[in-house]
Amino acid sequence: MRQTLNRTSSLADITNLEPQRVWKHFHALTRIPRPSGHEEQAREFLAAFGRELGLETIADDAGNIIIRKPASPGMEHRKGVILQAHLDMVPQKNSGTEHDFLRDPIRTCVDGGWVRAEGTTLGADNGLGLAAALAVLEADDLPHGPVEALFTGNEEAGMTGARGLRPGLLRGSILMNLDSEDEGELFVGCAGGLDAVAGFEVPEQPVPPGMRGFRITVSGLRGGHSGMDIALGRGNANKVMNRLLHDACERHGLRIGSIEGGSLRNAIPRESFAHVAVSAGHAEGCIASCKALAAAISSELSATEPELRIEATPAGLPGSVMEEGACRRLLMAVHACPNGVMRMSDAMEGLVESSNNLAIVRAANGAARVECLLRSSVDSAMEDLSATIGSLFRLAGASFRLEGGYPGWRPDPASPVLMLMKTVYRERFGSEPQVRAVHAGLECGIIGGSHPGLDMISFGPTIRHPHSPDEKAEIASVGRFWELLAATLAAV
Fold first, then answer.
1. What is the value of pTM for the model shown?
2. Is residue 155 annotated as part of the catalytic site, yes or no?
3. Cys staple from 267: which of 103, 114, 175, 467, with CB 3.0 to 4.6 Å?
């Protein structure tokens, strides 16, 4: 294991960054493929890590790893602290990047004061939280009470590890979630989430004679986290593509062979591709209309999406096209589906209360599937939003179901660990931390449900553009994050 920790990365030796005790573990994690649903190697690595240190190590049936470290001498009476981070990372890459997330290590590089990856997600979400917990487990110079490190599986694709955590398994009374992305901010609440899935039957027909084939591509969008970044006004590739297809079908009789847009429910879609056909007599007019609309969309999004590219290029004919009536219902439903921020919070200024991410649109081989991720910190608002979207798709003739719901985490402004960390932060850094809730899914709500009475808080280093290939971590913030963690553990 120690040899693994000391290997250099493909592009930059991030193990020399400070604090080295955190960065060396993060570097080791970049060598281990761990996309959501494929965390086997990461689990084996962490279990071996705990056992090598002689610590109690548990692998449960839900894909979680728990490592327990006894208190420092004289601190056995302190409250037990649970350090929690998730094993998996979001596997996103640019279309021109060759990378196999099941095999290849992440290629890291230092870019000014930031660490990023070469054309892929970095995995700082939540690799830096994992690395900090590993540093605590390994340290022999860090005073603390009893510590448990809880590494949960498959957070990004359904939080199945947290959901499957056996009630009563944890011993600590304080939960520190290490999965936030703004250093200097302490998070005390989060939104709940719910997946919505609509299915259409779209019968196939032979391509009519006299047609010409084209491929339409929407790319270059910034994407990002469907909770943290939903209020930034970024373009949604599925919405952009659907707007182009809907217009071309209405005006030029465009026929659609297939659509493939978005890849993950919790990432704002960056790309969409469609294989289409149009009659030879309408081809030139259709292309001209598409270019004009593309220019209008690019102008609308110019402030947030300067790299947006919309292209229509000649291609062979698709093998078949969708029946026109079914295709029309699909396009109209996607066109009408709400996307983005639905409402801002009344309880906390600047916080999104409810949102929807139109995450995935796939249509081929006689069927279409639309997936959305709904988020809200208000249960009744979530119910209303899900009913709205469900009504829309059912009216369009689609099947509709809700799945994967998880609860939010209600803020507790009187939390003892919050009061302690505010004091520690003020003493260490001479300023007041911000106290916030986040419009994203943290596992605190789920874990708190299986272990009632936990005093919970979430914090972390500064990470920008998670869930996209632009993801990057601020180097200086990792040092402050580690200092706050270490000082808080000593003060609990």
1. 0.72
2. yes
3. 467
